[in-house]
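Morning!

As promised:
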Amino acid sequence: VCLKNNMIAAYQEQLKNGEHSAQEKVQEYLDTITQQDEQIHAFLQVHADEALSRAKDIDERKDYDKPLSGVPVAIKDNILIQGKPATAGSKILERYTAAYDATVIKRLHDAGAIVIGKTNLDEFAMGSSTEFSAFGGTKNPLDTSLVPGGSSGGSAAAVAADMAMVALGSDTGGSIRQPAAFCGVAGFKPTYGAVSRYGLIALASSLDQIGPFAKDVEDIARTCQVMAGHDPYDATSLSETIDWTTQQDITTLRIGVPKEYFVEGLDPDIASAVQKKVAWLEQQGCSVQEVSLPHTQYALSVYYIIMPAESSANLARFDGIRYARLEELQDAHLPLQELYKEQREKGIGDEPTRRILLGTFVLSSGYYDAYYAKAQKVRTLIKQDFDTVFEKVDALITPVTPTTAFPIGAKTDDPLSMYLSDIFTIPTNLAGLPGLSLPTGAQDKRGLPIGMQIIGPHKKDGTVLALGEYIQSHHTT
Amino acid sequence: MSDINDKALSKLFELARIKEETDEKKRKKLLHDLGEILKHFQELQEVDTASVEPMAGGVQHTDVYRNDDERYRNDVERASVREAIVEEFPEAQNEYVKVPGVFEK
């Protein structure tokens, strides 16, 4: 896997000069899915017929001038596409069909994109390895004995294995950036509120954000530009516009390196790859300084209180009454409380159950102040750390993950060790900031890609992507 | 700070409307895992938050008002979405969701 420059722009040039048709391109991606996906299991559904007929339509109208004309896109299966199943990786939604299109799906369609299928995820996006999907795990295309990361592991694997040009994921605590790092592709979590979440099956509403994966930062910016903008159906979507241009002079930027991200437990190969990249940026003219985000160490605890609290409330809606009901309970004629309990016990897997119980606990009378209210306050301090640092610097550079991709099965029995794999991505969600995960080009001793993270101030997504684009196009190792 | 004991676990299952886990081994593992996670949370007690306002969300929330105008009432697309949502109800009568009796045991 390696990054490619201007993939979409180059492809659309080929469409316009007749070198390729959209149908040929879509067929090429579908063929790759047929050849690869039995092994990797990135997709839960492939929409071959619809994708080909849409490509045909685009070819016939020579409709090649839209920002995503003809681009095969894969969608995480917690984002709704009208008339298609949306399982969120859970058995409880196995029989559910989406009633409407998510706003991002509408906007991708209007921009000419072709949805090629829906990708695997940890159940309700709860996990860091895609092993917690009720429909079986996804494997890392770089080495099938390893996890692809998660929870958007299917989307990361689809882009890494050329089964989609762009893929959408959702990121609540690192679910786009961590799998991007594990699979050696770029993945971006925009500023909270930059992209509408109407039609995203909610995990934790104060943290969730939709974002893209691609092999090219320019393509990420292009996709974000299409998806972003206020949506009256999502009250948390921002009304201000964000500047997505990546053509900015980055050599005058002030870069901060937070010392709390280079601590014990971080793989030394990762630390050195990220530091090398920072040193290279300094040579290009950027000013670099060490900074401090003193409350970083508390982010994991804060996150694992707030996220389960919010998700225990969000998942209450899956009660067998409003959405799908398990087939075995359809005609069981149970009293209401029994129906709820049977449906949820049989339909929801171990990890979501654990988080629902944890969330119920931290919100319960007698514990609310000690856990939930306390976590909300420490969250304020974490955000203030970033506010203070961004008075001095324009962007932060950190590792994405403490380790590279780990073996399948290594952490499934130990929730806390699984949670720790998101330690460097969580603070960004708590503060609502944009974060880009980008391969450094370096590899660890096992030959696995090492990622780096660029974090920017609120609504400065363009700066983050410009810096990523510059690194990608000027420097290979 | 308190741990979750076996009795408290039963109460949590009840509050969460999930049928209780009865397998002893799984129950023990669940209690252990939750205990370990809660132990990790202890570190928050060392942070001084006396004068700190809680942060409830990712953006500054303002009330959003929408006029109940014709546009929304006569929106054909929204009407079809409404139909599709009703179709997804596991049990429906006319265009209403059908629920087992709330007070029946």
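Chain A has 15 helices and eleven strands.

Hope this helps with the figure draft.
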